[in-house]
Amino acid sequence: MNLLLDEIARATARLADAGAASPRADAEELAAAVHRVRRSELHGVPDSAFDARFWEFVARREAGEPLQHITGRAFFRYLELKVGPGVFVPRPETEVMVGWALETLRDMDVRDPLVVDLGTGSAAIALSIALEAPRARVHAVEKDPTAFVHATRNVEELDERGRVRLHLDDFAAALTELDGTVDLVVSNPPYIPMSEWEYVPRDVRDHDPADALWGGGDDGLDAIRVVERTARRLLRPGGYAAVEHSDLQGNGVYWVFAEEHGWRDVRNRRDLANRDRFVTARLAAD
To answer: Which residues form the Release factor glutamine methyltransferase N-terminal domain (predicted)?
Structure first.
């Protein structure tokens, strides 16, 4: 049997005992990162090339360190992003919201749509939109300096056409020069209530930056309320907003985008697991 595949099997058992949600996939991803191959190529690594650092990576994952912090990379839609301590690791759930944003941009009768990503983190959302909607111009705002470094690295490496502009700023006051001109505002802000601290997985609460997790207020929606006010300021009449939330907050976020504030067509939308995941709304055109 191939030595590396044998060691991956042993690592899978260890990670399962440690409570990893996807022990086999984690073991394979760690092995691929150490040996600089794709997961599909692991069977081709010769015994002589086995790198014992694999077991160092396994021990770190066993101790609860996020897989993406160990490998230094995260996959999001068509992107491979650089991530690490100090930046939120993008999740598959957010890909569904980006898919909606791309469909909305395609349906707009706008030659070069203007998009704002509030709280960009690794720049996953901003870069996906810039890659998949080639005529879009994207402004990405991040207030945390450490996360901004990660975003900058990803934009410099992946934004070959220069369609993404990064801004180190608090998004409550950012981009006032764009007020009333933006076609789409999208955001995955912090939204977890502190009352749910004990229910958040250890590798998330211990390693993702606190400012990217805890939304503020008893309901965790304070940051989303800021997004709503900022989106209302930035959007042109008829422009759209999309904001991610937890699967238990759909009703609360729906009412944040109130009709008396000028919002229309407010809808809760579901992720691939058929759970409420993000709210979309259109700013009134009249």
So the answer is: 9-72
pLDDT of residue 198: 62
Instruction: Provide the residue range defining the domain that includes 34.
Output: 3-63
- Which are the catalytic amino acids? 88, 188-189
**Binding site for substrate: residue ranges?**
188-191
Structural contact between residues 32 and 48, judged by C-beta atoms closer than 8 angstroms:
no
Known binding positions for S-adenosyl-L-methionine = 142, 171, 188
Is the CB of residue 87 less than 8 Å from the CB of residue 224? Answer: no
Q: How many other CB atoms are there within 10 angstroms of residue 144's CB atom?
A: 20
Q: Does 37 share its domain with 154?
A: no
Closest CA to 69 of 126, 41, 30: 30
Pairing of strands 182-187, 235-244: parallel
Total count of domains within the chain: 2
- Residue 132: its pLDDT value, please? 96
Same domain, 41 and 152: no
pTM of the model: 0.90
Looking at residue 196, its pLDDT comes to 64
